Amino acid sequence: MSLTAHIPSHRKPRRSASKLAVRAGVAGGVLSTLAMAGTASATPSAEPAHETTLEMPVLNLDLAAEVSSSVTKAAENTRALAVDGELNALEETARTGAAAEAKKLKADAQKKADADAKAKAEADRKAEAERAGRSTERTSLQSNSGSSSSSSSKGTSSGGSSQGKGTVTAPATGSAAAIVNFARAQVGKAYVMGGTGPSSFDCSGLVQAAYRQAGISLPRMSQAQSSAGTSVSLSALQPGDILYWGSKGSAYHVAVYVGGGKFVGAQNPSTGIVERSLSYDKPTGAVRVL
Description:
Shape: rod-shaped
Number of strands: 8
Distance between the termini: 200 Å
């Protein structure tokens, strides 16, 4: 055999580098996968098991402040409502008390007014009785005066004395007659304070109504009526003149002179409207409006 002849080799042929690289990559991947699986299976056994718990949320500072402010505001509102309710209750109590007090005061005032009216009526009744007694005494004395009194009376009728001139007058005519006739027609009606007719009068209400029959408008009150017209002497009275008691301009009573020494006036609640002689209750003065 020749020295240069080809002798077959017993070694396996070499694989190419590319095939080796592929195989190495596959092997490495398998090893990596196994390593990761082993790690994953070992981890649970290494860590102890824990029970599952719920953690409470933690409020931040801004939320806590807002909650605190809301609670404070709610408390203040509740306190304000309570105060308002208490004030309303106090006001209601005050109103109720004031109404009761006013009612009591009104009742007391009414009782006092009734008592005063009763006392005044009693005083007027006594005064009326005293005047009537004095009038009776004067009449008795005049009846017992004898012939001298008769002579004096005749002289009066003939105009011989100043007193006769004031009490003996001619019959009323015209406007004076209308005033006198109206006043006399009211005799017997009731006296009521503030009355202006037609069923009741007070003193100035009667005088005002009587003058209205003659188309004359007088003031309502006795004080003003005593200043109306011209002052006249009681010795020179004429029918229709206004008589007054008290000071002129501040008189407390008025009446109408009807002639014959008599007047008609609304005297008081006890007597009502009456016709009396001047001697029954002599007036202070007189004024003439006609």
